[in-house]
Amino acid sequence: MPTEAQGPKEEPDRKKRAQGAVHPDLPLGAARAGIRARRVLLGFAMTLAALLYVDRVCISQSQHLISADLGLSKPQMGLAFTVFGIAYGLFEIPGGWLADRFGPRRTLTGGVCWWSFFTVASGWARGLASLVGYRFLFGLGQACCFPNLTRAFSSWFQGQDRTRAQSLTWLAARWGGAFTPLLVVFVLEFVTWRQSFYLFGAIGFVWALLFWRWFRDQPERACEKGGIVKAGRPWRWSGARYIRHRQAPKTPLDDATQRRLASHTPSQDQAAASAAQPRPAEPARTHVQVPWGRFLANRSVWLLCLQYACLSYGFWFYLTWLPTYIREEFGLEQADRYVAALLAAPPLFLAGIGCVSAGWLTPRLIRRFGDARRVRRGLGVLGHAVACTMLLVSIRLENPILSMIAMGFSCFGNDLAMPGSWAGCMDLGGRFSGTLSGTMNMWGCIGGLLAPWTIPYILAAAGGRWHVVILVIAGWYAVGALCWLGIDPVTPVAVPEEMSKERDEFPIPRVTPAEA
Length: 516
What we know:
The protein has one domain: MFS general substrate transporter like domains (Growth Hormone, Chain: A). Helices cover 72% and strands 2% of the residues. It contains 23 helices and two strands. The longest helix is centred in the N-terminal third of the chain and has 35 residues.
């Protein structure tokens, strides 16, 4: 039994070991380091997702200034929104393929620098042609973001942690878009709309530099400074801890530590068998042909892509035409710009809560019912149904605040189905999750680019009645709910030998608070 004098001394040692300052070779410190590294990666992903939506949404909030300065009509501004969606959709599959082929580190860093440059360049536009060209090139860069993040999560996270990571990333994206109207209105108090693009674009270069210095494609090659281990140091996964092969601790251990270490140390037979096995090749440099035939012949892949197009059609209304809808539907003038910005916040704000709710509910429902397929399918149907129903409610409410709150719950339903869609790409795609997620996101862009392009024409055909536009969007959500009834979001499409090898070779542990 430890004495009272020993207790205070053991507590600082335990904390230091947890921080990696004492006994760095211990499994406890390694597991803690793995947790810290995944949190840093998640922080990078959430920051990038928020920045992506800030750069994307800022043009919709300042479109009235751009239209007045460049002399553009609504259909012409719709064209500028649409070409972004075309470029975003065209480069989704190449962006995912680049992630699978060259790794997220190089692809994502280059993509962020690319779109940040053309965010700045958007402020140089002198007419419709230059604005359309800059927004097209801007979309090419942004297309690589989410497929590359999905590829990174596929290597760094396991099981339901991937769904949680996706949900938190989409939370950051939605909240970035939710607060962008207020941010843009505030920035425009001090600078012109052109200078605001310069400011937002510069932030991306800073993110790219920090990410390049820290991130590595394979978790086991992340530098010690970044939170795991030095490159080239062999690790293996045993039970719930990292164990370093044939490495004795550098300092004497107390009895409790020796017992814990012994309980997680592989036997001599296991160590000998592991030592006899050849070191596997680096997955990111191993080229395996994408099984396009299996993807194209799979019903779940087609329906997953179609439902994502339905989600995106409705969601791109919020990204492009929502500020105009608020001003015209509720009769707000330029003097009410802060009121309009506040009314634009609930949809994307509640959308972020929908993402987190899906990430929180999914693993608990799976543990409760033991069927991941039915849980994901049920949340997908529920999300689309809520999005459709609450849109119909919003047009029946005359109060602007209540109407926008109802529209916010429609966005909540939209994003309730979102993390399950991306988690389905990881489970169905395996090693090719980047390619499959890029394919799904490309379909999303098809739905997304149709929204900003068709809405001005629907509005003109309806005599300026925005209610007709909302009814069309609700119909897209109804189709998405029907798609989810036929989706199997957990059964892999690729054959076992085509599935991701790096998760077996270099797995990342899930350590519960009790274990840590």
